[in-house]
């Protein structure tokens, strides 16, 4: 390093000796120009950050500060790997889930599992269903009148209504409808992978897709979760709200459209927050990732604004739309040929490892912003 810099230093010394007056005048001009001074200072700081070794020593340059963030990313990667291994080892096979099993073939234990997934309140009636050995065939014959009297004795009218509404859905589908992330993935593997990447790279287009092509099954529960009605905050109305899937009110649409336009990732974070009790760690990964993506989007807008590139926004939006649409069409065409193992790897990578990558991207953007300020 010293040998390569020596000829350049000798060349600069020779120029200073040959043209002392011109160099002195140029130096004074630079000192009186604040923009040039700030640019040189930023350039010097950036150069110092890029030098891995301090001059004449073998020690790491302490100004770089990469060791701390590397350690954080390594720790988070370790947590994600442990979580993924635990998830694969503890969760039952996707083919054994009730979403793939006809309700008429459910055992008494599986009926209780279906009941408990309706909410914490359903555990009040667990022992009653087990005592009567209610299997799938018997479940299909039960009516509201039978639920209200012994041996079930479900006195709470909202609880009875919630059970009956969900039972009607089971009768209509013939199987258990998806009620969590893993069941939805088991029933719709291609759509879940597409939505996960679409909501990450283009949340507005992803939500628009849900509105146009999956309104009843996905979009309605989504908007009722993130923009709930505030008419009555009692527990009974909460149960009814989650199962009725009524058309959103104008107040709900107004709240949704504001967040959709300004903070689309906040919608995903709010939805994941509502599922903390069901997906403890996964929801937290989604919330953190949504926060990081919001920060990265703000940095992108700031970069466009600071560079006076607002005129290029329509072209950027069209290019982005074309890119996302092309990728979605490409995946749809070749989906039958892609091995399921590869799809699962892509799904879990986007779910658990993308937040770790986005942390590093945010740190780089902050450093770049500091360089521009200087």
From TrEMBL:
Residues 106-173 form the SAM domain. GO terms for cellular component: nucleus. InterPro entries: SAM, SAM/pointed_sf. The keyword Signal does not apply. The chain crosses the membrane at residues 68-88, 285-305, 326-351. One of its GO terms (biological process) is proteasome-mediated ubiquitin-dependent protein catabolic process. SMART domains: SAM. Keywords: Membrane, Transmembrane, Transmembrane helix. This is Bifunctional apoptosis regulator isoform X2. GO terms for molecular function: ubiquitin protein ligase activity.
């Amino acid at each position: 390093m010293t040998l390569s810099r020596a000829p350049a230093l000798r060349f600069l010394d020779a120029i200073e000796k040959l043209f002392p007056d011109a160099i002195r005048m140029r130096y004074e001009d630079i000192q009186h120009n604040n923009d040039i001074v700030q640019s040189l200072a930023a350039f010097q700081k950036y150069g110092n950050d890029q030098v891995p070794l301090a001059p004449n020593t073998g020690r790491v340059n302490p100004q770089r500060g990469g060791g701390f963030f590397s350690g954080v990313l390594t720790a988070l990667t370790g947590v994600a790997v442990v979580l993924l291994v635990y998830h694969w080892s503890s969760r039952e096979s996707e083919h054994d889930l009730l979403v793939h099993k006809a309700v008429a073939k459910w055992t008494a234990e599986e009926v209780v599992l279906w009941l408990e997934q309706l909410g914490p309140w359903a555990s009040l009636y667990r022992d009653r269903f087990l005592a009567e050995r209610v299997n799938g065939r018997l479940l299909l014959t039960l009516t509201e009148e039978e639920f209200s009297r012994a041996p079930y004795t479900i006195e709470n009218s909202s609880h009875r209504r919630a059970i009956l509404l969900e039972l009607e859905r089971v009768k209509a589908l013939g199987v258990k409808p998806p009620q969590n992330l893993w069941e939805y993935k088991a029933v719709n593997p291609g759509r879940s992978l597409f939505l996960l990447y679409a909501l990450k790279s283009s949340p507005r287009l992803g939500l628009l897709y849900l509105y146009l092509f999956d309104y009843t099954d996905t979009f309605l529960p989504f908007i009722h979760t993130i923009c709930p009605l505030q008419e009555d905050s009692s527990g009974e109305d909460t149960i009814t709200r989650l199962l009725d899937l009524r058309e959103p009110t104008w107040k709900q649409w107004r709240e949704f459209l504001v967040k959709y336009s300004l903070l689309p990732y906040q919608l995903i974070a709010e939805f994941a927050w509502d599922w903390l009790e069901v997906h403890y760690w996964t929801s937290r990964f989604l919330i953190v990732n949504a926060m990081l993506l919001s920060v990265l989007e703000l940095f992108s807008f700031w970069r466009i604004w600071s560079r006076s590139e607002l005129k290029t926004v329509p072209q950027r939006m069209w290019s982005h739309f074309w890119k996302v649409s092309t990728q979605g069409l490409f995946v749809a065409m070749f989906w039958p040929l892609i091995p399921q193992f590869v799809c699962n790897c892509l799904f879990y990578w986007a779910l658990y490892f993308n937040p770790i990558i986005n942390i590093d991207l945010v740190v780089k953007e902050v450093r770049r912003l500091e360089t521009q300020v200087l």
